[in-house]
Amino acid sequence: MQVAEEEYRKRLKDISDLMDTPHGRRIAHRILASSGCLARPANFIDPAQISYSEGKRSIGFDIYADIMDAVPKKFQIMILEAHERQEKINLRLLKEQGEMNNE
Q1: Which domain holds residue 95?
Q2: Is pTM beyond 0.90 here?
Q3: Which of 14, 73, 78, 102 could form a disulfide with 25 if both were Cys (CB 3.0 to 4.6 A apart)?
Q4: How far from 93 is each of 30, 87, 100, CA to CA, in Å?
Q5: Based on the structure, what is the number of domains in the chain?
Q6: What is the pLDDT of residues 43-80, one digit of tens each?
Q7: How crowded is residue 70: how many other Cβ atoms within 10 Å of its Cβ?
Q8: Is 61 exposed, middle or buried (0-12, 13-18, 19+ CB in 10 A)?
């Protein structure tokens, strides 16, 4: 087995292990979200800001590609879990706002 192929298999195994647990999927989602690869590209005018943003997105897309190569179904689970978390947060915020308005 070639060294590059062995390293690729190790990388995919690491990603698979990460995506096997809910906390691993939360970490992966946080990284992908903060890289900007899960959102539309931003419209910047400043070339330095564009370069910075696209560099972050590039790293996110590399991780995304590894996830899709290793465990694409876990990516779907990760996204569903993230939506559920966000929905719970939104409900808590609405409840808190309602409580503050009633005071």
Answers
A1: 3-102
A2: no
A3: 78
A4: 20, 10, 10
A5: 1
A6: 888 899 999 999 999 999 999 999 999 999 999 999 99
A7: 19
A8: middle
